[in-house]
Amino acid sequence: MHPHQKEPCCVFKVGGRSFHVYAEYDELGETYLAYPDFEENPEYTDDGRPFATASQESCLYCKPDDAGKPAPGDCGGCGWFFREVTPFDPIGICMCDALKRRDGGRPTESL
Q1: How far apart are CA 50 and CA 81, in angstroms?
Q2: How many CA atoms, within 13 angstroms, populate the side-chain half-sphere of residue 71?
Q3: Going by C-beta distance under 8 Å and a sequence separation of 6 or more, which residues neighbour residue 101?
Q4: pLDDT tens for each residue of 73-103
Q5: pLDDT tens digit sequence for 15-61
Q6: In a 3-state reduction of DSSP, which class is residue 104?
Q7: Is the overall model pTM greater than 0.70, yes or no?
Q8: Count H helices, E strands: the chain?
Q9: Fewer CB within a 10 Å sphere, N or C end of the chain?
Q10: Do 81 and 59 contact (CB within 8 A), yes or no?
């Protein structure tokens, strides 16, 4: 494989949408998975909730998924992060109302 070459790997279905994940290769030939970049290119459910990856850095609205735990560093550990199929889904939906899209297709607050 050539560096930076990518191949389709799998498709995740979330919120009525399908997201492609690609296997990419670095200069050493190591493989890594490239998920959609929802921070750079936000996408939303039909009712205005943002999609996120579990590894995405958490925002200022993050909350622990269990009471008594510290705030998580990524969306996967956030109590707002909804995984549709399994508890290990790498792509989910942020259920935080502060980030829900409203009038004009923009979130209520910019982070």
Answers
A1: 10
A2: 8
A3: 44, 48, 49, 50, 107
A4: 999 999 999 999 999 999 999 999 999 998 5
A5: 999 999 999 988 888 899 999 999 999 999 999 999 999 999 999 99
A6: helix
A7: yes
A8: 0, 8
A9: C
A10: no
